[in-house]
Prior knowledge:
Layout: E1 4-5, E2 23-29, H1 33-44, E3 47-52, E4 61-68, E5 71-78, H2 84-92, E6 95-102, H3 106-115, E7 120-129, E8 132-140, E9 146-151, E10 164-165, E11 178-187, H4 193-204, E12 207-212, E13 223-230, E14 237-244, H5 251-259, E15 263-271, H6 274-283, H7 299-303, H8 310-316, E16 319-323, E17 326-332, E18 343-350, H9 360-374
Parallel strand pairs: 2-5, 6-9, 11-14, 15-18
Antiparallel strand pairs: 1-12, 2-6, 3-4, 3-10, 4-5, 7-8, 8-9, 11-15, 12-13, 13-14, 16-17, 17-18
Amino acid sequence: MSTTITSETTQTINTDFLPLEGTDYVEFYVGNAKQAAHYYMSAFGFQALAYAGPETGVKDRASYAVRQHKLTFVLTTPLRADNPIADHIYKHGDGVKALSLRVPDATSAWKETTKRGARSFMEPVKMKDNDGELVMSGIHTYGDTVHLFIERKNYNGVFMPGYRAWSNPYFKPADTGLLYVDHCVGNVGWNQMNPWVKFYEDVMGFKNILSFDDEDISTEYSALMSKVMSSGNGFVKFPINEPAEGKKKSQVEEYLDFYNGEGCQHVALATNDIVKTVTELQSRGVEFLKVPTSYYDDLLDRVGHIDEDLGPLRELGILVDRDNEGYLLQLFSKPVEDRPTLFFEIIQRKGAKSFGKGNFKALFEAIEREQDARGNL
C-alpha cells in the first residue's frame, strides 16, 4: 500500500469547535527539575523564565519554565514520595506529561471535548494574580499523557499564576535558533493507532492528513505504522505511531518496553537555519543519530536542487526530503534520557509539509544500530 495524503480541512479558527492557537508549552515530569532546566538551557539554548514551588505557595512540586522564542518547556519534579508526579517518574522515567495547547476559551474546549468522549483530567480552573486571570482545563489522551487547554487572553504575567519570574544573572546562554514546536509524536501499543486516530477525529476535530504503512516505514528487521493528525487550522500536528510485525523488535516496541506504556516519543523543534542550530547544539554536547555518508552520494538526484551546500549537511548528518510543496531538512537526537525513550527532532521546512518519508529507511537503520548496541534489537 502506498502513502496516502488527504487534503487539510478548510475549517477556519472561527468555525472549528476546538480552535487551537498552537502549542502553549510542553511539560516534562523529571527526577530533578533544577538540573533538567540547566540542561535545556546550557545544551539547547533556553532562557530562564519562571519558577513555582514552596516559595510561591506550591507545596507538592517544583517547576521551572524555560523559553526560547515561541518554545516553552516546563520541568516539574515532586518534592515528596506518594505523589502522582513521583509515581509517573517511577513508572516512566523522565518524560512528557502535558502537551499544552493555547485556546481562546479553555472552558469551551473542555466542554466540547468531554461531551465528545474525552476523559477529564482537569475541570476548568480560573487562576488569578496581580497580572490577571488565566483559565486552564485538561483531558487525558494516550497513556498517562494529557492535553491542557490554556486560555491567556486576560493574563499579562510572565508565565502563569503560581509562578514568579526566575533568572540567573550569571548564566544566560545564547539561543540556538529553536523557534516553536513543529509536531509531537505519540507511540501507542499494538493495534491502538486507529483507535487514537478516531479519538483525535471525534473528540478534537482533527483530520488524518498523512498515513504511512509498514511498507513505507520498514527496514530488514523492523517496521511501524504512523498516521499524522492535524488540527482544523493546521497549527497543531500529532503523528501517532504503532508497532508492526518485523523480524526483530521495532523502535516503538523498545520505547513501550522502557517507558512502561504509551507516551510522547519525540518533540520536533523548528528552526530557520538547521546547519547553524545543529552546529551549536553539537558544540554543547547534544548527540545526534548518524546515517552512512553514502546517503549523500545521490542526494541531489533524489531530492533535486536545494539551497544548502552538501558539505555541512554531510558533516552534521542532516537529512533532506522533498514533497510537492518543497523540501525539508531534519535531524534526530539520540534519546536524552538514560532510558531509550524521549528524543528530539530538529526540522527546517523549505515549503514542505510532509514528514520525511524518503528518510525513513536511513533513519530507522541508524536507530536500529543504537538499539543493537543497547542489546534491544
